[in-house]
Protein 1
Amino acid sequence: MAIRMPLEREPKERHVNSLIHSIMQYIKNLDRNVPFEEIQRMTMIELEGDRKLIEALQKNKRVQVGKNFLRYKPQYNIREEKDLETLMKNTKCRNGVSVTRLTDSPVNVRALIDSLVEKKIVYILKDSDGSEILFYNKVVVQPADEKIKALWSEISVPNYPDILKELNQAGIKVEQKFFDDKKNIVKKKPKVKKFKRKIKITNTHVKGLNLNDMDL
């Protein structure tokens, strides 16, 4: 009886989008033209002669397709700090610019962002989902003069109950509960209970003197 050997399954053909994703993940970290030969060696994806794959890459806005190479094109062409500052200054979007989109580049844009934040040219706000949004700082506040700082430090700040009283006298109503909550509570020191020690004295050589009846 002949034994039928199981047929080997042919490798399932990968979808074009899956191939593009693998290629993008490799070239996006390289700030240069990446030859087809290198892409094939590093991703096991052959581009030479694959017309369907080449045409799909040509339609992708993030890829520059050359004769025998690919190059990643980030959404924002930022190469130095001045480029980022110009971009943020010219951006009229009230919602700011996503930090994720800015850092999607082979260039270390995060370092440029941190530098501008330190200089207070831009600032970062976090959205409810934790994502970071970059905004251009249109209001640049100059540091106060040292004399003004000295005068400010000399001003005595009244305590909270006095502030509330002043507000009430000025016609600004403040609920009574704020007074109750902010009253200075004086903690009473617990009384230390004194105990009388009874000492039995055995030295009774003096006649008529009973020291055990005395409170010590």
Protein 2
Amino acid sequence: MAESDLESEPLTDLEETFNRASKYLQTLVSELDSGQLLAFYGLYKQATVGPCDIPRPNWYQVQAKHKWEAWKNLGDMSRETAMTNYIHGIEKINPTWDEEEEAKAGSQKWIVFSKLSYGSAELNDEDKTFLDWIKEGNEAKVREFLSGEPTLVNKPDEEGMHPIHWAADRGYLEILDYLIKSGANVNSRDQYGQTALHYVVSCDHVDAVKYLLSIGAQSNIADNDGMTPKEIANEQIAALL
């Protein structure tokens, strides 16, 4: 075999930009919600592997099912389109990300300053939403937002997750309790048919499991895949259900 046959094909401009974008995403993980991360995951798999052809997870691995669906839903989308959409997704978050990355490559000192300033800009209190405060576990701000707009308590986000789902995902007992007392539906479902009890069970938040059960969370509600909280629970938590 000729040596040239062993050499990889040179990367296209699109592939090089996509690779930079995928590395840049790692700096944003803590700032993105689960829906955004799943969307990027699906596009990344589509771009690097191609259409999803693996079996659907059918047991307690909730996150694995979500990832599979994010990938599978892209159907026969081409690798080029997936890469383009991935890059566009990064641009929506930070239109100048590529220029910033190029500048960082030339100045380590600038990297540190840029990261701090960018992070602080993202975390300005006036820019945070009701759900942002829930994700951070700031009960005082959650109370402040709800006192001004009580209907937020059962308002889902773009991915179909209700405030109670986010509090359950984080295991914030005080916020869960306040949301319930403010009118949150303890058995509300997200787009996958999962309740807050599904979330605390899958995240092993034992105290939150006990609390939700004590205020009427139904342990027999099945999600869109037919899985109840007990079926995805570990042995310790399953004994409580």
Protein 3
Amino acid sequence: MIDIVNFINGRHVKATSRDRLFSINPSTEERIAQFNVSSSTDVDSAVYAARIAYEQGPWPRLTVEERASYLHMIADALEDNLPLFAQYECEDTGFLSKMCLHGHLPRAVEHFRFFAEEGKRFFGSAIPIGHSYINFTHHVPVGVVAIMTPWNGPLSVSSINLAAALIAGNTVILKPSELAPITVSFLGQIVAEIGLPEGVVNIVHGAGQPTGEALIRHTDIDLLCFVGGTQVGKDVLRYSSGTLRRSLLELGGKSPTVVLADADIDAALDGALVSAFSSNGQVCTAGSRIIVDKTIAKTFSCQFIERTQNIRVGDPFDETSEIGPMISASHRENILKAITQAQQEGASLCAGGIVPMDCYRGFYIEPAVLTGVHPQSSLATQEIFGPVVAIFIAENEEHALSLANDSQFGLAGTVWSESDSKALSFARKMRVGNIGINTPYIRDIRCPFGGFKQSGIGTVGGYWSLEQYTQTQTLCLPLNSYALPRYGALK
């Protein structure tokens, strides 16, 4: 079993609390890591270390090229240990091994390399004012940044924010989810080995209570980034209001997959299945609401249900598995309860939604498809965060658009049509931030990613991430001698 400790001010230190948590392998139900829960005292120590490092240390005063060299060293260390880290992340999250090895972990390496170079391209601007003055801008760090990340893709999600915050010159307190802390905990060892200045990166472990709450409530944090559920995001905003602290929030989703009457059904089926069930359905962009035109609804629905029934649920290390386990026993139970409640409200369960008969260990569930779901029911409006899909029938395109936009969330979506121009026109009317047209939405580090409505505040990716983790300072310089009014000079 792995013993995990905090990393504060360049040192590995055990949390002061005696309360202990365990990381459970979702596919075997075995304990694979243990750690003491960080108290408010531990959080105070981490924030203090980050503050001293920012105010007195070298990190914000290094050139961007010097900071970039450290990010490349972190990327090198991750890349050298990629198979091992992928194994740990698969064991920690239950995500498919092939996805961890070829997707999530290489993406973390890419994030550090990308921002190492993007930081060098992040320039200010010059604005002439007549012939007498010029104003010019440059970007300065926000200061002390707290980053709280989820358990689905823990290292990848942490790295996109950590790398951007670091290249901008900030110091950081990073708190990973208590459900999947292993790979993020190894970052402490990496930054120590490469000689990153003390206090620049600090890592604390613990649950939402008390560790997360202590971070959210802390008054000496200049920016708090939270990736996770919408309710906690609202708590972040509430506690930030007292100091007007900046907040960057990537929150929940209930993403629509819209299949118009002229769509290529085979292509739409492939895309809808990927959107709904990749990452075990435990991803904020999951296409959990499928809206299909009535003229093709029967054909599409029957084929979607049949394909879902054939999905291979099993060991994430098995190359033939298509869906692994849910993150925890309690999370699986919540998913099963949501399906039962939907049935009680009149929905029909057409596929899955049960524990597989041949899975004696692990938190597995067969992917579920429901029809007859009321658009205002909990299954249609709340994020289930699992392999559960509701199919809705649209009378026409106007009705499809109304169903797609009838959500408190607005993170992602897809549109399928033989006509690219029709799909593009439809997509531009959707109130979501990230849309795939005749394809599942493909995220790229160079592109902006952010949600509408209650799916978040702020945008990450490329230039936009650096805007989040910096402040713009404007400086005014005279070009020519200019006679200012001489207040008080007359006698």
Protein 4
Amino acid sequence: MGRPSRALLSREIIARAALAVVDEAGPDGLTMRALADRLGVKAASLYNHVAGKDELIDSLAELVNAEIDLAPLAGPEWRAGIAGYARGYRAVFRRHPNTIALLARRRVEADRQLLGYEALLAALGRAGLGPADAAEAAAALDYLVLGSALETFTAGFARPAEEYRPDYPSLADALTESAARGGGLDERGFELALGLLLDGLAARV
């Protein structure tokens, strides 16, 4: 018997194809038909591996969250560990920004998501935060990471800084001096916010 001309389908293969569709076409582009077309199969064959779109999105969530490195959270110094985790978490969703709208308001069911929150909350607990404070800190970190991955402050100001000066001189000054610092305003803004968050947590432990 000859070998199949294409790789057999699996839940992981389907999830990776779904992620590619979302990366390229956004969350509205993820349909079972679009996914089947990408894989070169009939849509009906997908249902042998996923029950429907909800289960497909759960698989996609598992795949994306598996890219987040949890190792920094196990380090001996809580501040450095949470900072390293936050940077890695943000980097994943900067690679896959279209998944944020798809996943942010869904229930947390993927094992890798749950493991991530468990590791973060355990690290916050070891730092000295009680469970309620740790929950607030985890929520704040989510807002910071996902918001900064989804939005770019810099791209909102497409004109040269001097063009804003006649009507918005403070904005022109801010953009000009920020550009002179180098390193990227979005990155510096994230690091500032992360540092302020960690300072706030340090005051609670």
